[in-house]
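If I may wish for something, please walk me through the protein I am sending here so I can picture the backbone:
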Amino acid sequence: MSSPPAPASGAGKRGRTSDPGLASWASLPQDLVRLVAWRLLADGDLLDYVRFRAVCTGWRSGAVSPRGLGVVDPRFHPRRWMMLPEGHCLYPGHPDLRGYARFLNLDTGAWILSRIPLLEDHLAIDSVDGLLLLLGDQYLQGTVRLLHPFTGDIVDLPPLATLLPQLGDSLSCCPVLYRIKKLASKVCASASFKDGVITVMLALGWVSRVAFATTTTSLDQKWNLSEFWATPSLAFQGKLYMLQEADGYCDNHMHQFLEIGPPVQLRPPHLLATIPKSKFRNPRYLVECGSEILVLSYRGASTSRILICRLADLVQQRIVPIRSIGDNTLFLDERCISVASKVVSTVRGDNVVCEHPRQRYLAQYHISSGNWSRAIDDCSLYGRAQGPSSLVLYIYSCCTRTLWYEGLFASFFIRCSSLLSIASTFGLAGKFFFFFLLHCVIVGTEE
């Protein structure tokens, strides 16, 4: 199929032209337009689909609008888009950003600046297929929402406060005011979408448990807590994956790889593979790369070389080192991210970016040569002001979820300062009443 001719200068409104070539393109049959649009969405990116709909009114009406379907229809999920902190301590939701957040496509390097008003009073605690998992009202109920950052579609989930009675004394050492915040500050989330019903699972790192909730009305509108203990570190295709390292105690010399699927009621983790510690030492990370899960370990007793294997091979009891990861770069920390190397110009080829295992600086490991080098220089680290100055650091900061909401605890003290200034206008009695209420909130107990 030949490309359409360029539009003539002085063309009128979108979709109108005197050029018969352009007119024929604009009048394509609706079923053909819809077929091309779906194929573009499947093979490309949501941004390509949006640009396709913007060509002319005929294509716009023939292709389904993502608005209203951005969350419930997985085809419209912005899977490879990652929200980035702005640097200079401007976390997403900072007042100076005026509700805007910046997103990076991890495959193409494209940037989008999107306005998200909810960030003014919500915290982004994780990302699921590019959807933002938001926490609001973090002092009382802990409302949870799934937000599509580009269409603005929202799906409400039960509040996290419904988990507190099920946790018993697990958070008793934490003041009542901070319990929901603490619970949400270390979360790995996955979501499955089937027949219009959304099931979300949360791996709660602070209590080593898994909770799930669904949008269907057949179950109680609350989060349901697992009876088993688990610490999954990776969400992949609607499931959670975890690694249990052999600890050497009680003759435990086998590494276990486990999978937790989307349940009606949570079932115990499914054992995928067991690998002897003598054959596979120190597995550390699970990371999604392309359409598969990679396992990263160190070779032998030394930490100078990294071993990368496919989880699918380990399930078959085969330890097959990978020599190439498709010209990608793996960023490793609390969460792991795969980024096309062309996105980061300072990191070339198949690399792993992580903290050096012995010297404690941000390093890159070259898979082909087995050599270590600095991922950034001192100028990139410190820059002219506080905060990241290198794209490598921006992406690496996304491996630590709490950097998405750096003002989590600061916002509380800012509010307290405002309330104290108001109370001070009432003299000594106002200050005494303020501190009495503050003491009740922080050290208070649940009813």
Residues 1-65 form one domain.
